[in-house]
Design a protein that fits this description.
Length: 388
Amino acid sequence: MSIVKVSLFSQVLKQIDSSIFNRLVTKHGCDKFSKGINTWTHFVSMLFMQMSKVDSLRDISNGLRSATGNLSHLGVEKAPSKSSISYINKKRKAIFFEELYFELLEQLEPSICRRRKYARRLKRKVFIMDSSIIPLCLSLFDWAKFRTKKGAVKLHAVLDYDTGLPSYATITDGKKHDVKVAKDTVFPRDSVLVVDRAYVDYEWLYNLDSSGVFFVTRLKSNADVKVVQTFLTNEKQEHVLSDQDIELTGFYSAQKYPDKLRIVKVYDKENDQTLILLTNNLSWTADTISQLYKARWDVEVFFKHLKQLFRIKTFVGTSENAVRIQMWCSMIAILLFSYLKQKAKYKWNLSNLVTFLRINLFVKIELWKWLNNPIIKKANPPPQNTLF
């Protein structure tokens, strides 16, 4: 494997289009009052935190200082002190990092492989929406009110099923209800939205239907319905128990959603439970409905990776702005890792790629050769003469 003059970390940073970064810096005036630490140095420091998984300002500063010979290749003049990072985390606008994520997503997304496993036949965009709560200590993060004695922020994400990455995300306080965020989100016509039962708001679902958006969710257990028509199910698809067109009969729900709906009852063998799926599409096969809802697991995997592989449980700042910066940098990190994983010829598991790159972060080897062939196999040693 050939030796190069810059580290793997430096080569990963070069995947970011500098013109996008500089345009956003100018747009938000991020380098004003920067205390000598420009936006790029700030970004490199926070991305280093995510990629190396250090958990304190001192570790970020000392970690970068320990790589003295590599800092010039990172575009950084000197490693920032912990007080400087603390100051700029509080003062530099988090909206910059949020917009940077979506700009980078637009840049890198065309290169990320498509994986339309179940939705190939639909020929339309599939989105999966969900949220995840990040617990915080209320005594330290007094702005993040969630319950009487607990604090939290909530990450709301709309996952693009094609890429497995959020095409839309927002961070709110822990009290914000999922439906309120969903109502502010616009989905393209003829797309498919998959959500869990927490998003069942019949007025919002009817607005989706009126906008030409198909949805797949779960019927609430207390819903009052009238069966309009029952259809025969495919005997080969044993997991599909029933398929029916219905109307809502509850006083308020019938007013909010006056049109026909469809319920598909399926048996989930892995979790040993029966699910009643609700959709406004009356023509797809029952199996397609069940597979679409099964695809909702992708968003759970995304949140799992984000929490396990990156720093969003331990925060290096207590202000709301600092927390938002750290969370958006974790999103940028998972975007970059996903991009590298998809382009590499070696069949990486995301967690393995994160771990291996973390170990070799400042090693000077060619990035793509290493990604394509990370395990160096030594040639068989020559046979040795033995005494016996």
